[in-house]
Amino acid sequence: MTDGHAPGAPGGPGNAHRALRDLVTAATVRIHRAGSGYALDEPGTFLGSGFFVAPNWVLTCAHVARSGEGGEVTVVYETGPGRGTSAVAGEVATTLPQHVEAVVRGSWPAPDLALVRLRESVDHDCAYVTERPVAYYEEAKVLYSGWSVVGGELRRLNGTCTVQGTLGGWSEDEQIRLGGDVLPPGVSGGPVVDPVRGEVVGVLKSQADRGLGGTCTAVEQLRSLPVPAGEVRGEHEDLYQAVFRAHDRYHRDRQRHPDYDGNTWADVQGQVGARPGRAFSPFERTRLLGRLADLPPPASTGELFGILESLLGSHAAIPHPAPRAWRDGLGALYESSRQDGALELVIDYVVRVMSAERPFVDADTESAERALWRWAWRAAEDLGVRYRRQLAQQPVEGLRPLLNRAEHQAEAQRARALAHVAEGAPRPYALLELEQRGWEPDRCDWRVSVGRPDGEVVRLGEAGRIPLTELTGSLAAPLAEAFRQCDQPWRPAVLQVALPHQLLGLDVDAWRFAPDAPPLGAHRPVVVRCADREQLPDEGDFVDRQMSADEEQYERAARWRRIHAYGAKAEVLDCEDGRRVPVPPAESLRGLPHTTVPVLCRYGDHRFEDDPLALLRIVHGGYSVALWRRRPDQPEAVCGEFHRRVGDTIAEAGSAERLPEVVHALRVGLRAGLRETFWADGIALFYDDPSRPLPGAGDLLEAP
Hints:
- The protein is α+β, with helices and mostly antiparallel strands.
- Helices cover about 30% and strands about 25% of the residues.
């Protein structure tokens, strides 16, 4: 959204804004209960509003779409002024959030979005959805459109609201507050339009309890739709990519259709004076996005990040929810570049897109790359000779077997993921830090960050006073965003969980963020770190501290280097011949060889008074890698198999660097019911890299 005083705002040329309203109106639809096609004007079946975002795709609110029965709705739309209404059956393809218990109508939690797929193909108009994140400015003007029951009849409504700020703090919970007009029941799910840019930027969510206005959700929240797990063989497997590739192709094709004599969105954007950055006009932007949509999407968000950082620098402000499509990357150039998306920058981006790895290819991939190359070469004609000479050195059409190249890249990528061997270059990771509140031990403060390969740790969100029993609900959205930013194709990023020593046994790897979701540790590598090494209890609390802090740090670094360079050997500390024994004191543990990985067989058996000190002694002993299994309900279980298999696993791993992925593979096997992994039930991995110190230890949130 932009300042209301900008050129082309509602006080500007009336014809352009009337044309914009016509386009918005043509794309806006009504959502009715399923089977109501015979009563198109019956208010009793009316659920709310929505709008077409791509051929045969409707965007609306989740609380509107889920008000029907069985995920089925009827979409009522108009094919043109005075042509009357038509109805088509639709199914709710997905919602955000996805897993929500039954709620009172209208109270669906943010972001409260749904995509409805039509059951059959029909001819209709589509709205233009922004490719850049929404900018929030107070007093900015926005347009809205929707339907409501007025005087007992269904009537179309549109109007103007002002942006009054935001509601919520985390990206997926954040909503835009609107004021200045009454938002009657029924308009929820309708489009919110920036009249200066001439594009849809949000979806109406709710009306104010009292007074004017309500809230809307920014459309970039759709980027938080789940990323498919495993290999993607086509765009249909990723709803986000499928919808927005179809969106951009639709607007490109509409713009160049020879028999279409009405205003297109690019026409009207040109009339209101919109400029998508300084690089080109709305018409050129529409053509470029259409060409990008002809290509397979990015292999991962991480791959897209890499392209953006190569152009903007590693400290560029990458928005969240993380960009996922090529169109999102183009939008990020507008927001992050001091040049405001100048032409050279856009061409450089296009060239990198053409050479990027592909998650899949289809019959049109080769021709799409050639068309994009021709676009880049023609666009560079107005630039200097030096730049054109650099561009000429890039691979050009006909010089490489594109399909074979893509297949080779995909196979190499799979091989790297299965090798479980570090490639030397650091990879991004997700970081969750928990801080226990001393005055409320059953509550925690949390912080979620992304660790980038250059060592920078970027905070994504934080919250305080969350009960331990409610952590999964509070962390679902921020962790999903962190994973989107870090994951690579066929290789989910590691989640590092920094815990205070009292919570080192917390079963984070067993967390589930939805009833039918796999445990977190079966979805990605999960490792535990100690967040309060500098504040561990001293010898007065039954732990001996014979070494200075510098000596302890040196000892820890030496052990870390040894087990990574020369391999490691398991040492079971708390069990001998099936009998529980105390873990030796830290002084004794320091005397073990530097290749030792401590193992706890009976962690959680609280019949012994020293059990809470087991992990604490390992940390005090200078260890940064350890394994244990949680078996609190089976204190008498036979453990010989565990001793043998854990020893073999650590030895066969070679470098300790492989252990996060080895443990992840064991958890995947447990999830799949593989008998050869049953010995690892409840396994946890302590992996606390001393070369990557935790950021801002102890300053998560201040105590009241």
